[in-house]
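Course exercise 7: structure representation. Students receive a sequence record and must write out the corresponding structure in token form. The form below is the worked example handed out in class, using Endoglucanase (497 residues). Read each field label carefully; the graders check that inputs and outputs are placed in the correct fields and that the protein name is recorded exactly as given.

STUDENT ID: A-19
EXERCISE PROTEIN: Endoglucanase
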Amino acid sequence: MASNTTQSLVLQVVLSTICSLSLLCSAFTSQDYANALEKSILFFEGQRSGKLPANQRLNWRGDSGLSDGSSYHVDLVGGYYDAGDNVKFGLPMAFTTTMLAWSVIEFGSSMQNQLENAKVAIRWSTDYLLKAARSTPGSLYVQVGDPNMDHKCWERPEDMDTPRNVYKVSTQNPGSDVAAETAAALAAASIVFKESDPAYSTKLLHTAMTVFDFADRYRGSYSDSLNSVVCPFYCSYSGYHDELLWGASWIHRSSQNSSYLAYIQANGHTMGADDDDYSFSWDDKRTGTKILLSKGFLDKNEVDFQQYKSHADNYICSLVPGTSSFQAQYTPGGLLYKASESNLQYVTSTAFILLTYAKYLSSKGAVASCGSSTLSADELIAEAKRQVDYILGDNPAKMSYMVGFGDKYPQHVHHRGSSLPSIRAHPDRISCSNGFQYLYSGSSNPNILVGAIVGGPDRKDNFSDDRNNYQQSEPATYINAPFVGAVAFFSSHNPSH
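STUDENT ANSWER:
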């Protein structure tokens, strides 16, 4: 028996070594990734605001925010709550929409029976963004709900009685960052609907152009215009130049209008093209823009875009140990680590960027240049896979950070609707302060927010499954959105066990 055990252990070590050196082994099957894809999209139904449709699948949710905007004589019903609260923040909602659309653009062919659900998730947001952009000339509505008041309550969206104040940016109080991101979202979505709904696609693109012109002509940060309403919640720390370049890049990709190409060529140097930036998020678009524009250089050899390929390479090389420009931090278990709060947002966006760049490179037989060495598309895919697999449960805790995926996942998610009894289970209203008993309860959330990816573990792979620890236990739309594209890729490109 002892010798058999020894042989078995030796075989496990050998197999594990082979797996670590290649893509031959996988902790998950293609079906697992397809399951994760379905759930990552389903999550958005739990974040919906407005009148829910008859085919709503997360049926513990009900209608909410049905009079949003009415006291201002504008219809702002719909859209998404960004995370575990009941506010509709325009900047992260627009970024979420851009990333959902980009996921479909690059990896929609791998989504199979989930493609329509992904489009529905995008349209739930773009319908709202169109209303926000088209209701009042020279303005863009960017938020519904007072976050300071909202955070003093723990209540279901269906019971909301906090002020539903409406906030906008305008020619007098500009918000180039949120407006240009909204333009990017509408332009990216216009590509998604180009074939299936050409009229809607045209409307999205024309609105994107109008909103971008407003963002560019009346320059300023929305943080300066709206102050404590958006800060510190979604303060624009990176300024607005990155969004202007990002917005122009998406409109150019959608429209192929040469004036946007000229805008990129004329303004790139002053809008972040020369910066080597090492994160990609709802706030900072520089890395995403470089990846997006590098496609122009790879596809058409547009020499003006060569700088974007070089900077994209610098970012990619910074992620991979062993390259001369490596500078990323990883937990002992192998998770990319950027911040103590909502770290997985950087992991999902980075995984998506790695896969998208790998796609662009492999289509042209190109590589990423890292000083004297290079990285192949396969190496980028392998790094993305490590991050995706960690989130899904291949980690030291053997825990999935996607709610409802696998056998072990977070039970105490920092999310009002999920943590309070549903209106079906408890039809009577639960008031603002009475909800806190559920926040502080040790019980598992009664409603499973299927597909939600939480903030994630700390720099030592430790995770506190605690509703009060919002840094680790709160989900957000912008964590999930890029993950949709990543798991779509692996659902049809997963190497066998």
